[in-house]
Structures are given as structure tokens and as C-alpha cells.
Amino acid sequence: MAASGAPHRTLRIILYAISALEALAGVALLFASPWLLSFARSMPALGASDLLLFLLKGIGIVALVLAYLFCVAARDPVRYVAIVDALIFLCIGAAVLEVYGVAAMHIDRYYPNVYVLSRAALQLILAVVLYVLRPKAPRASD
Q1: Euclidean distance between CA atoms 57 and 129, whole angstroms
Q2: pTM score, two decimals?
Q3: What is the pLDDT of residues 50-72, one digit of tens each?
Q4: Secondary structure of residue 114 in the 3-state scheme
């Protein structure tokens, strides 16, 4: 085990949990894309075209890669602090995109605004928690 075991235990647990959720999402997108698209049939703009299925499977592969990176970062957060920083940026970017979707694109036709805004708030809370828990760079005098 790496030297970052005890001081970063909470960060490691969070990263392992995010890695597991990301892996489940990736496997679902990769192997159950038609089933997942059946939920979107009520949306008139979306159809189960071959291109959309192909894109969902590609996103599933990216999700599996992210799950692997988060799992590696969970083993040694001090060494892989860049992955933790990327996850913080990803959470902030996703929250901003969801707020933009509510404000400018009126996605309340598809999802309730309360759901989207609460999800954005949770993503920002997760970003703050990860920022507080992230390993700090050692000082030059140390």
C-alpha cells in the first residue's frame, strides 16, 4: 500500500465509490444501450437510430476508462492528484452545463427543473468536498 493510506482514507473511499458507479454506468451504456434508449422514446427529438446507439456505446467506453483512472487514483491519491483535480473540474463543468441547460435550453420539457438543479448542487458539493480532501503539494521548505 502507498504511503497515502491513513491521511487520505475518506478521499480513497469516495474515489472507489465514484469508480464503481462509473464502471456500472459504462457497462450499462456499452451492453444495454437499446434498453436505456427505450426510456427516451417519449422524447420526440430522440430516436433509437444506429448512430445514437453507436455514440452511447462510445460514451460507455469512455466511462469505463474514467472508472479505471478513478480506481488507480484511489490507490494513491498523492501520486495521482491530477486525476483528482480532473474529477473536480468534471464536477464543476457538469454542474455549469446543467444550469445552462435549465436557463438557456429550457430542458424542463424533458426533466423537472428541481431534479436538474439539485443534481447540479450535488455535483458542486462533491467538487468542494474533493477539493478540501485533495492532497496538497508539499512546501518548498519541507
Answers
A1: 31
A2: 0.80
A3: 777 888 889 999 999 999 999 99
A4: helix
